[in-house]
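3.2 Worked example (two chains)
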Amino acid sequence: MKKLTGIILGIATVALVTALSFEMSRTAVAGTGDNVTGYAWSDTIGWISLNNLNTGDATSYGVNIDSTGTISGYGWSPNIGWVSFNASQLSSCPSGTCAPTLNWTTGTVSGWARACAGTSTGNCSSSTSRTDGWDGWIQLSGLTVNTTTGDFSGYAWGSDVVGWVDFSGVNVGSPPAPTANITVTPNPVDYGSTVTVTWTSNAASCTASSGPGFSTGNAANDSDTSSALTANATFAITCDNGTSDSQAVTVQSVCGDGVVTGGEQCDGGSGQCTAISGGGYASGTYTCTGSCTYNTASCVATPPLLGTQCDDAIDNDSDGYTDYDKNGDGVRDADADPGCTSTADTSEFNIGSIRPR
């Protein structure tokens, strides 16, 4: 008992000495941004506050449980100092899965927390334990959460120094709504250029589901550069919190780059007018303007074809006769226009051989 008392006194001293320096180096979300509130209780070391809003403390700290069940942040004990719930500081836990996690479906809690005073540095910057027999580990597997009310129940175990920790005074609010957002810049983008894809999510990880050269590396928040784009593309992410997002990117033409894209008719140089689709030119050479459109001033248009007068039911030469085969039997009509030699004949006029009336 004397040894335990000595350890606790030593811990309190370490906690007071390291609290200020730890505050300067730790990364913690502000209390208003954390969804765990209340106090846990240990018969040996007293209250552990899980959110500075409990005490009105100006120092911002708190514990958060996100939509994937990941528990993170810090609690505070006036006797043993900071208690870390951050997976990055818990990788050397005594056994099992180290990262503290809540299963939002079953309400079971797993993983570990650690009193930073139990580390050799006293601030969780090292995973090495103290040399007096106390390592600060607190096992969370005895806890459950009512996922309807958010109330915790059960006990965590903190070995000889911390002992059993009662979490019945702790509550977690609703998890933040799962989010995923992706943005692409610039948009539109010049032909042959790259874009920067930036994505954010409160998930644990996201993967790229579409986009040329785009990869997330399983990160939930980051940015990446695409490959060179030569066609419109869509960039999308799918995250492990059940969300997804996408953004379409338009590739625009760049007049003067020598590549005909988008709405450009041409991009530099000249060519044969007959190559202009739908232009109706018989000859000539076009040039390309500075706005990437055809200059057809030197193009020669194809002469228009005359109509087929011998199959249009019109007396085009006013001689009282029309067409070549009005009844469509393939034989010249007896009263066919004398100027028609077939249904494809383009003119009814037959000067010098007008049929007498």
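3.2.1 Second chain
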Amino acid sequence: MRFDHYYCADSPCLPSRSGWITGRYGINNGVVTHGGPASRLQIIEQLYGGPDERNQLVQRKLRQNGYDSICFSNFATRHCATWFGLGWSEFHSPNLKTGSESAEEVNEAVLRWVNKNADRDDYFLYINYWDPHRVYDVPRSWYDKMDAHPLPMDWPDEAAIQDQQSINGWFTAANLFPNNRPSPTPNMPDTIQNRDHLRHMVNGYDAEIAYTDYHVQQVLDALGDLDDTAIIISADHGEAMGEHGVYGDHVCADECINRVPLIIKWPGVTPKGLSCSDYLYNVDFSATLIEMTGGEVPEYYDGRSFAEGLRTGSCHLHDYLVWGHGLYTLQRAVRTPDHLLVRTYDDFGYSFDPVELYNMSNDPYQTHNIRDEEPNTLQAMDHYLTEWLHEQRVKPYALPDPMEVVWRERQRK
């Protein structure tokens, strides 16, 4: 089953995974950025007993449900997120790299484990591949395969790319690499000045995805009979490919950054070829996985289970979503089926207006701010944001808003 409107509650990497592993939004687990006070996970503890059951971590809940949880990832080292390693049955760091390890290197460790343990039952295997993430530097043969295909997108066109040349900031069309450095890889251009450069960039990204797919298939082949194996593919965040003039990175709360893939094949549960168009958070999948493995969702989770919807494709849990970004820009966004509101508290030098409103049905790349054209829609979306903030502040596990913590830190510098 493919989920077409699945979003991380907070982006990018560390906030997103903190949300998934705790089942809570960043405003309630304390993590909205990388580094500093607002990157430190906040959980209620039991003295000498680990996390309180009301906010138990996903990997420990799975073990309580009778499933060993096995992790292959260098994520904890990359972000000094020591909590990420808590509670797994087995935690494997494939090597001493910190996010630059290739899928081939990851699979060296994974396939050793699979070859020894494929006959085991009742385990959850979590594998972290970094490749579809800047910098795009897979072997050139993978790039060449992508270069045989036409550019799969009509936007940005030549006019849009020219308009973007004056946009300042890291990872923008004219400054694709910080401080105007040249590309460190032949799979990415130095800048984006035309559609040929865009094609170069997209080919590099698609090559990373194809390379990762190949190594995922290696694991599936090694596992053998998959008739009783659930397969789940997802990610922590997306990448911009021209939205707001940004290419190949994740600097804001735009749709393209917080929308992430989710594909689930669960034998006996998910019908073949079905898709779900309902709007869901990654913290909802945390709750869903716990329920699907026979457990009760912890009391202090923000996520809600859509386990029943895995059979039907009907997973309606939310009338709207609120998500945030706290690494580069400081932003919160509200998404309904038709509109996206983005409020910017710190633009980090990019060209974001303080308030932006988009009709996502006819402007999916967020090119035309309709804030002044639709005041009633703006008021309704702002009400959703205020309502959501009030809901978080009265929860028994509420924290001081970590996004405000980041904002105050920046004001002092």
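3.3 Remarks
The chain has a mean pLDDT of 97.
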